[in-house]
Amino acid sequence: YIYTTVLDVLGKAKRPFEALNVFYTMLDQLSSYPDIAAYHCIAVTLGQAGLVKELFDVIDCMRSPPKKKFMVGPVQNWDPRLEPDLIVYNAVLNACVQQKQWEGTFWVLQQLKEKNIRPTNTTYGLVMEVMLVCGKYNLVYEFFDRVKQKSIPGALNYKVLVNALWREGKIDEAVMAVKDMENRGIVGSASLYYDLARCLCSGGRCKEALLQSYVDHGKFEDAKDLLENILNGRIRSKADLGQQAVADKFTFNTFLDACAEAKMWNDFEYAFREMLSNGYHFDERRHLRMVLDAYRSGK
């Protein structure tokens, strides 16, 4: 127990090699021989550090009998061998992310299949992260679809998806992915929204990122002022004064959502009419519920 606590402390302190030394010391004594909790500690630590080879050495230790002969006394059937579980395999995936080794993900998935261990959303999220850092965006989408078929994707799955879409310049798709996440009631992390803001800014849509930020933080009047400035052509690029910020579908939808949530139906009517006059059509799936709510409120 004391050794396992030390492993945990060293892991949280990001000191993987010192943790590894403690782990190998544990192998020398019967009283301290690693149990599953100890293997979890060292695996997570090595995975976070990206030490793939060292992690596979630990897995070999799990599966092998002790190299040292112990005097086990009356416990003649003592067998400390263990099989890796999902925590250990997730640690391998984490190491693959750090080292950009996409081949390792398929080894992990094959092991899980052979041992009838069901991958979680976190497992698939890590697989997607590996594919993301390796530039295999088509596999990111493929594994995201696999998650959607089997369960409801989590915040990590959406975060990686948004990053992949951003890197491929698919800004509208990234925005829709976040909307899909929100419609499912999934709470995205702050880093996900930061990535979405960077995605919008990289596509020349910084004002939309700012509008989204105002809405997310309940600053309705600021969002309204920003929309009016965009519509009136008062926002221009500093690099090119002839280039104006233009409201598009995402701009209007973001503001309409905010109006509906705040029940500001006069502002909703104004924005809705502006959306139609700017050439964006009524989307039954997107707008019908809000329009009906506005109608019930006298609009």
List the topology elements.
Layout lengths: L1 H11 L3 H11 L9 H14 L2 H12 L22 H14 L3 H12 L6 H13 L3 H14 L4 H13 L3 H13 L6 H13 L3 H11 L3 H12 L17 H14 L2 H13 L6 H13 L3
Helix pairs in contact: 1-2, 1-3, 2-3, 3-4, 3-5, 4-5, 5-6, 5-7, 7-8, 7-9, 8-9, 9-10, 9-11, 11-12, 12-13, 12-14, 13-14, 14-15, 14-16
Explain what you see.
There is one protein chain. The chain is mostly helical and 299 residues long. Helix content is 68%, strand content 0%. The protein contains 16 helices and no strands. The chain is elongated and about 85 Å long. The N and C termini lie far apart (68 Å).
Q: What's the structural domain tally?
A: 3
Structural class: mainly alpha
Let me know the average pLDDT: 83
> What is the count of β-strands?
0
Major pleated sheet? none
Helix content: 55-70%
Shape: elongated
Count of helical stretches? 16
- Strand portion, in percent? under 5%
Order of helices and strands: HHHHHHHHHHHHHHHH
Instruction: Give the low-confidence spans.
Output: 235-243
Radius of gyration, in angstroms, nearest whole number: 26 Å
Features:
299 residues, mainly alpha, 3 domains, elongated, transit peptide, PPR_rpt, DG1/EMB2279-like, repeat
In brief:
The protein is an all-alpha fold and 299 residues long. It is built from 16 helices and no strands.
